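Translate structure to sequence.
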């Protein structure tokens, strides 16, 4: 049975500031998660303007939280935070090893890009892969017998 991960932190890409933010946010909230998004380092104003759209929409308060700042600092904090259940990194800064190392102590799920860029305008920028990482499989054992 698939269920939401919980709180997903995401470091959004610099190469597609608005599209990358929406492409990481939408699957996360569509599957029932809340998210903490670290905006693009090079163009954070796109994310802060988008936050105004979220405030006037039907998205409940606290479901989407947007932060600005260096991904190295935000990634370290999100990776070590005990209330964040998963961390996705699409940052142009190579933080993959540091995020996985910091996330190991609290068994946080990670999805990192290993310093590779993603084609946000093609099929790799959307799809089932994002939905799959936004859920986890819960096993249900139904006892029967005597």
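Result:
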């Amino acid at each position: 049975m698939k269920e939401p991960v919980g709180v997903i932190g995401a470091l959004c890409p610099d190469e597609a500031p608005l599209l990358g933010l929406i492409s990481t946010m939408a699957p996360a909230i569509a599957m029932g998660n809340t998210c903490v998004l670290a905006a693009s380092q090079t163009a954070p104003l796109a994310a802060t303007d988008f936050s105004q759209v979220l405030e006037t929409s039907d998205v409940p308060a606290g479901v989407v939280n947007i932060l600005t700042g260096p991904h190295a600092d935000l990634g370290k904090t999100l990776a070590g935070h005990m209330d964040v259940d998963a961390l996705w990194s699409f940052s142009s800064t190579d933080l993959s090893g540091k995020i996985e190392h910091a996330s190991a102590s609290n068994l946080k799920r990670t999805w990192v890009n290993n310093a590779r860029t993603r084609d946000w305008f093609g099929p790799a920028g959307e799809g089932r892969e994002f939905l799959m990482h936004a859920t986890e499989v819960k096993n249900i054992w139904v006892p029967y017998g005597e």
